[in-house]
Specification:
This protein is of the alpha/beta class. The chain has 12 helices and 8 strands. Strands 3-2-4-1-5-6-7-8 form an 8-stranded mixed sheet, with helices on both faces. Bound molecules: guanosine-5'-triphosphate (GTP) and magnesium ion (MG). Guanosine-5'-triphosphate binds next to helix 6.
Length: about 300
């Protein structure tokens, strides 16, 4: 199955939520006026894409429909896909394409941080880069072992200390090792924590600050968000962004959820680029995010 098909299959449940309504709406077409636009607005809001993005999309679609006299189902649908893609924050600063680059992965418990680090290490390796992994989750039982399994799968070295060590020291060690080995991509896993836990967020702030100070390469903070958490993901993103200055997000578990629309709410409302999306648990199930492709999979489910 090609990538678009996998994304489209993953977004099936989110799409179902939208297209039932949309198909009825599009059959009638924008010629019915206010009612059409109001119904379109509530359909998009129901799909978790948020009031801000919805308002921008519907206002622009309405203008365009009037200006270009769009009435056909396909025309309106294509314009909706375009405008939805435009509502995402631009993604022109991908830390995984920079060389060299150090990335700290943060997020709530179970979001998919460790898995994502493994997938990215493998991707970087296959592109001929020299990644290295740091295990700064020194808190959760078996976190280090889990990361080592990913390191083996990706054939990438994992720098660690015993459980309970200071996570900032692991970041130090990892950067030391990266310099010695000539690594050009440093991927650091951190312990999951609730965005509402002030102490743990402060600790993470310290880890980020120490890493920035020590690193000779640019340091980026990437938030990993589980799509299935829906609207709560928006709160998580806001808190992590405020506390740490997040550079962008990776949305995991888009496979199967009906809440995939949250990707747009987070990106639009908080002006955060989406760097990657996860659609499964295996090493190849992570791909670069493309706004147009995503929007098309969400609305139409088929390739152009
Ligand atoms: N279906 C699906 N599962 C995923 C995806 N990404 C991660 N997972 C699963 O989510 C679960 C948690 O993943 P982890 O990588 O351990 O999450 P974490 O954020 O490191 O968790 P903590 O370290 O406990 O905070 C695992 O069972 C993963 O296989 C994805 O894109 N799709
Ligand atoms: Mg983890």
């Amino acid at each position: 199955m090609g990538w678009f098909q996998r994304l489209s299959e993953g977004l099936k449940n989110t799409r179902k939520k939208i297209t039932g309504e949309l198909n009825v709406l599009f059959e009638i077409g924008p010629k019915v006026g206010d009612e059409f636009w109001e119904d379109l607005e509530s359909t998009l809001i129901m799909a978790d894409i948020g009031a801000g993005a919805t308002d921008q999309i519907v206002t622009r679609l309405r203008e365009r429909s009037q200006r270009e006299e769009l009435t056909g189902v396909k025309e309106v649908e294509d314009a909706l896909v375009d405008l939805m893609a435009d509502a995402f924050a631009p993604n022109d600063n991908d830390p995984f394409e920079k060389n060299p680059s150090c990335v700290l992965f943060v997020g709530v418990n179970g979001a998919g941080k460790t898995t994502t680090v493994g997938k990215l290490a493998s991707e970087a390796k296959s592109l001929g880069r020299k990644p290295i992994i740091g295990s700064a989750d020194t808190f959760r039982a078996a976190a280090i072992e889990q990361l080592e399994v990913w390191g083996e799968r990706a054939n990438v070295e994992v720098i660690k200390r015993e459980r309970g060590s200071d996570p900032a020291s692991v970041c130090y060690d990892t950067l030391d090792a990266a310099e010695k080995l000539g690594s050009d991509l440093v991927l650091i896993d951190t312990a999951g924590r609730l965005h509402t836990s002030t102490d743990l967020m402060r600790e993470l702030g310290k880890v980020v600050a120490v890493t920035r100070k020590r690193a000779q390469m640019p340091v980026h903070v990437v938030l990993v968000l589980d799509a299935t958490t829906g609207q709560n993901g928006l709160n998580q993103a806001r808190e992590f962004k405020d506390a740490l200055g997040v550079d962008g997000v990776i949305i995991t578990k888009l496979d199967g959820t009906a809440k995939g629309g949250i990707a747009l709410a987070v990106s639009h409302d908080l002006n955060l680029p989406i760097f990657r999306v996860g659609v499964g648990e295996t090493i190849d199930d992570l791909k670069k995010f493309e706004a147009h492709e995503f929007s098309r999979a969400l609305i139409k489910g088929e390739e152009e």
